[in-house]
């Protein structure tokens, strides 16, 4: 790993991710690998396929590849014609609809794995990660970003990313009141789309949180936390 990082002049964290993604493509995703080699998709598209097939059974992976890369692929734009973010949304929607285990069951298992992780990095830096339910994580992100935007101004030398990191650290360490100043604490809004039939309990079609993706229909019914609000937009199940 260190040799790859040195040869490509990237960090060991990025090198480890690159090796893992390359191994998955070479061993488990022949159609995606072929599309990458022929130039039909780019590297970001290939990485997205790796991400969204993680945890799927071999049969489900084959079905996903056949749907997006096979000769009988559905109508619409080819994967390579979509921007990576749009392609990820399509992949994730297909994954949630065809996963052998319900989204509610998978979410319940994943919630039990919530945690904080610490990873030392170079140059005296480190990564601190929170693994949380998606609505909670998005609310934290939105609130810290709103606070950071509130501090921006002609006399503030830090950029938005730096402000967000500083605010998050200050809040966790209990020193935010000293530095955040008079910026009011904003509400963290989370926009939720709930299909009508799921809302009525007729189907188990996943809800969708803007900026996150599919979530169990039951998730939007709970408040993300203090100082947050969820706004459900009820749309027909076909939308």
From TrEMBL:
InterPro entries: DUF222 (IPR003870). Residues 2-163 form the DUF222 domain. Pfam families: DUF222 (PF02720). This is DUF222 domain-containing protein. It comes from Pseudarthrobacter oxydans (Arthrobacter oxydans).
């Amino acid at each position: 790993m260190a040799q790859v990082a040195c040869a490509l002049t990237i960090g060991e964290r990025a090198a480890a991710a690159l090796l893992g993604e390359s191994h998955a493509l070479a061993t488990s995703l022949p159609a995606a690998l072929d599309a990458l080699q022929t130039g039909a998709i780019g590297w970001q598209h290939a990485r997205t396929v790796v991400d969204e097939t993680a945890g799927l059974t071999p049969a489900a992976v084959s079905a996903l590849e056949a749907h997006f890369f096979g000769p009988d692929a559905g109508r619409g734009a080819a994967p390579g014609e979509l921007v990576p973010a749009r392609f990820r949304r399509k992949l994730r929607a297909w994954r949630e609809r065809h996963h052998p285990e319900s989204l509610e069951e998978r979410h319940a298992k994943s919630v039990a794995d919530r945690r904080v992780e610490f990873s030392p990095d170079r140059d005296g830096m480190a990564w601190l990660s929170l693994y949380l339910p998606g609505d909670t994580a998005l609310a934290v992100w939105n609130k810290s970003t709103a606070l950071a935007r509130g501090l921006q101004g002609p006399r503030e030398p830090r950029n938005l990313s730096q402000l967000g990191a500083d605010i998050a650290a200050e809040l966790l360490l209990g020193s935010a009141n000293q530095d955040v100043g008079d910026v009011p604490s904003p509400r963290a809004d989370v926009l939720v789309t709930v299909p009508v039939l799921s809302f009525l309990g007729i189907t188990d079609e996943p809800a969708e949180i803007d900026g996150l993706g599919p979530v169990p229909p039951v998730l939007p019914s709970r408040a993300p936390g203090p100082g947050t609000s969820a706004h459900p937009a009820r749309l027909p199940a076909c939308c």
